[in-house]
Amino acid sequence: MSDSGTTTNLGLYVPRALLESVPEGRRDKYLSAVEEFAGRKYQIAVEVAKQLPALLADEDPDAADRYLAGVRAVADADWRAGVEAARYLQHLQASGDPVLAQGYASVVAEAVASSTETRGVDDDAVELAALERELDAVAESRQRVEVLRAELGRRRQRATRRQDRASDLAYELPGVLATLPSKHHATYMEQLRHVAEFDPEAAVLGAPTLAELLVVHHFSPDGLAEWVGRGLKVLERNVEIGRAYFKMATKQALADLEELREGLRLRQVARVLKLYATALSGRDVMIRATEELGGLDLMSYEHIALPSEMGAYEDDDDNFRAYKVATAHGAGRIEFGTYRFSLSDIPETVTTLERRYPEA
Prior knowledge:
Shape: elongated
Number of domains: 2
Oligomer: single chain
Distance between the termini: 77 Å
Largest sheet: 2 strands, antiparallel
Helix content: 55-70%
Strand order of the largest sheet: 1-4
Radius of gyration: 31 Å
Number of helices: 16
């Protein structure tokens, strides 16, 4: 330690307070890890220096090693994504679900890696340098040079875009994962990895969509795999339309949602509920979906409004019971005149109130 309060060689990354928070017997490991990432990129080293003390003090002796391995895996693919991984990975480890942290590192690394975009770039660059030296003497080489220049430019642009989107995914994904129940983690990570491998931008757009399909629309693992598979086929045919599919912004995506989602549809039981409501209220009552009311009132003496789909429970019998409870509430209000009340029914009370509160 120097008088300035930082280590002699790692003063940019390790203030005295951080080093003193590390158990004394593990400080060499701490400094070694920070120095390793400083050799990659100083931004990663700064994040590792901040996050690692708590992991080295953890009762789990392997917590720090798992964290460093995950950061390396992402940083090997792209240093910017590595910065985000260094910032968030320990929080995912703390969830207690090993699938979460491992899946995060794997998804982000896949989003950077591209078997079709980066393969052979170094070889082409070597060939390009050789051909440029012979350009003046060999006309055929001149043509090859131009082809390779254009191809390398396109590949580098695509690789840069992948890296940008992978960094975005590394930033956005922890927020989505925080809303996802642990029972969905493995299914979610598996399907998002498929999307990220094909197109990182589609993965950024699809990350919240896949969570919504599992949590809100109660997709089964097989249903989500089918929906993702259909989206990847669209993405293969047309990148822009495919990205819109994973954002749930195409007719096909919505149609596939309707086909594959779990839950009981109102239209399947509307007739039974109508008979039930009529029997309870003593009058002919319509059953309407809330999404199809148009300009009609949500609550009315003429109809009962219910959700077009009930997915509160995994079992359709339980979902039907929920529909029946809601219908009984509505029928009771109709039967006992909740929606027929008018101030004209209580003229004496209105007159008394007007006298007591004339300004009102």
